Amino acid sequence: MLAQACGYVTVRVPGHDVSARREGGAWAHATWNGEPQSAPPEALLERLRPGDRLAVILDTPERFDPHTRALLGPLLARADATITGSATPAAAPTPGPRTVILAPLSAQGARSLAEARAGRALATPVHTWLAARAAHLPGPLITWTDALLLEAHLRRLDPDDLPTEPDPAWEAAVAQHVTLAARALPHLPYLYGRAHELRAARDVLHRQPILTFTGPSGRGKTRLALQLAGEARPDFPGGVHVVSLAGVPSTDVALVRIAEALLGTPPPSADAASVARLLARRPTLLVLDAPEGHLLSAPLLEHLHHLSPSMRLIVTASTALGARGEALLPVPPLLPAAVRAALHDQTRDEPAPDEADLARLVDLIGGEPFTLELAVPLVVTLGARGAAQHLERVPPADRAPVTSLWRQLGTHEQRVLTALATFDGPFHPQWAERVAQASTFLLSALIHHRHLHAVGGGLYRYPGALHTFARAQLHHQPAWRARVQGRVLREVQATLRAAPTGTPAWFAALDAAYPTVRSALGGLLAHPPAAPTLSEALVDLTTYRVARGHLYDAREDLRRALRAEPPDAPRLQLALATVLQHLGDHEAAQATATALRDAAERAGNPALTAHALIVEGRVLHRRSRYPESRARFEQALGLARALRDVPLAVRALDGVARSALYFGALDAARQAAARTVRHAERLGAPLLLADALNTAALVATDERDLPRARELFTRALALHAAYDGVTGLTLNRTGLAWVMLLSGDHRGSAALSRLVLRQAQDTGSAWEVANALVNFGHATARAGQLDVARRAHLEAARLAQRCDAPSVLAEALGGVADVLARLGQRGAARTVFGVARVHPGANAEFRQFFAPLRVELRGVPPETPDADVQALCAEVRGARRGRAQASTT
Fold this sequence. Notes:
By secondary structure, the chain is an alpha/beta fold. Among the domains are: about 1-100, no CATH class; about 105-180; about 195-330, 3-Layer(aba) Sandwich (Rossmann fold), CATH 3.40.50; about 335-400, no CATH class; about 410-480, Arc Repressor Mutant, subunit A, CATH 1.10.10; about 725-889, Alpha Horseshoe (Serine Threonine Protein Phosphatase 5, Tetratricopeptide repeat), CATH 1.25.40. Helices cover about 65% and strands about 5% of the residues. The strands form three sheets. It has a six-stranded mixed beta sheet. Strands 8-9-10-7-11 form a five-stranded parallel beta sheet, sandwiched between helices. The chain has a two-stranded antiparallel ribbon with strand order 12-13. The longest helix is centred in the middle third of the chain and has 25 residues, at about 370-395. Residues about 85-90 have low confidence and may be disordered.
């Protein structure tokens, strides 16, 4: 802008770490007076008229590819001024009268840029915080400003209030937004040709929400998609996220993998709505590599785009997905000129080949990128003629890229890669050494030759096609497969036994090894060994997975194990029922637990019967069927006492206390909760004690013994903090926020509810998000922020309706009625409260909390609320009628 304002004709060339990985990549993004161009530099020079002054602007020239550096020579020789902001002396032009090296922005300039980005004035503490991170550099300043604004939005805070936020984790959360948006792509080999395809793909990406690259295996679809995504990253503040879906078994797991990429951590659950919420935070580019056709249905993709319209999607697949808004770009073979350029550059230190031999080799490669990749080392070793002769000797049936690669490997390399096919995802090299009995040197060689790819965090994985081929080899060698599986199982067991189960050290060991453990179990379950140790490992790991929220991993692995009909199926079924209950899949959890209980009763297995009853009780409790829930817990308690199984009895007694509390039997709840705490303290089981303390705190809250409730919630929080248990922390912070609300500390309750809501938005279930929104709505309503409260309650009600959470739905409706009454719309409040009061989720706490509102609205004639609220009430009534009809049927 400065150069054009001074009357210069400008050529701007932006450097980028990804564009540097292809032929002419930086020049492909050059602009002439701000307009994209595709002409070579010589053609641009011909456009200059006599008297025109030329300014060449070089952005981060240290990231230019070699071809662009060569192209710039004539332009730099003609330039009247060269402008750069490079901080790398070797990359910047030689300083002189025609060279301008821009300094960082002034303090006032940085302030103006940040406020322009925010669309509003920002307080001095915000500018101070931004300056400490961006050092007044425009690019980083924009990135950090966007991240700060996003975090303020997620916390329901004004950006000016963020630096004074009592939760110190807000700074780490802002940094996480920056890190995820700038996450590096996998290492990219240099790309030759494809300029036309990339130019066409960029145009499509600006116009269409979904771009699908199609073509046969080995054609370079993934490489092209990654190049496009990396070069487009500056247009997407939410970053570029690459998700490999090869081998993913179901849509649920695919959504979890996508959410994991967006968050940087595995979420406990993910559906289309929650993934869309993450995508909608900022314009985001998502690359989905090699999904199976059944994973991503056209309606699902259309739904994601409808909920997050700024999202763009790049897919690599063999065929079209069939979604509205999808554009197809078939990937053709490379042009002969690109193949020649690649062979020349990769073998430039070798003697020049005979032209006839080179032409013959180019013809044999046929424009296939994978074949080209195989041919380069052959040319280095054998020369162009020898490489051509080698390729000609390969039978046509074996000229498939992976087959050709496999034939070039030695016997020991093939054996190692076959063993590593046991993993169905990323793995740690130390595990690879022990499982495949491979030396560090051999693994390093496989990595160097890109037979194994780094994926970050010290982990490696197979390229997709090679992994499929190696797994087929493993399938045809049952004896070798059995030995390898035995080693994998020993590694998994050693990790599970690294510390006493359930201790902080046990959780820490599994936190470090979990990605490899997940890959190991997934690979084992492709051909389950007939060994009870696999079932034992899956059951033991369920405790960790539930605590850490890896619920979909647990569900899929347990279901796959059960399909093999193992002899210890009941233990796996119990673990599956527990996982389904935590996922909120109440119908499936109850059906699984009930079937298991019936089978256990017939088999005369009281311990298994008691465990199944506890799962049933928890599901019924979550569905607000408190009398039935209490009956199941009491049955389980009787069996546990007969078995003298104290931990089992404590779990059952805790369930009795909770069900009695929500049913309104406060005396029984108080007695059961007190006994549960005493027994849990004697057992010395911290997490069991934390659950008991939470129940006792809920009882104290219901009795309005608020100091006692605060003390109990605080003790439970301390226990969960020692284990870094996110679910337990969320549960007890929610309870503590409720206590603060009842105590009249509305500001403190709103602040803590914001913290819970912030955590739940990333890693929580829909139920946790809805519950946090209800608490936040109550607190802000009492602080006079009625519009904020109304929006929170409506959002909570819709979420609770979708995730089958009756008590949360009833309370959210009550919250809407409360806000309407405070706004003076008492007739509309009476209508909404009538819907809430007769809802099955209107439990004892609901009746106690909303008793004053019920008195206030008594005798008020009902009136029709506004359209949003009326639609919600109609939806709730319709859902109730539907459930009643289904129950009758």
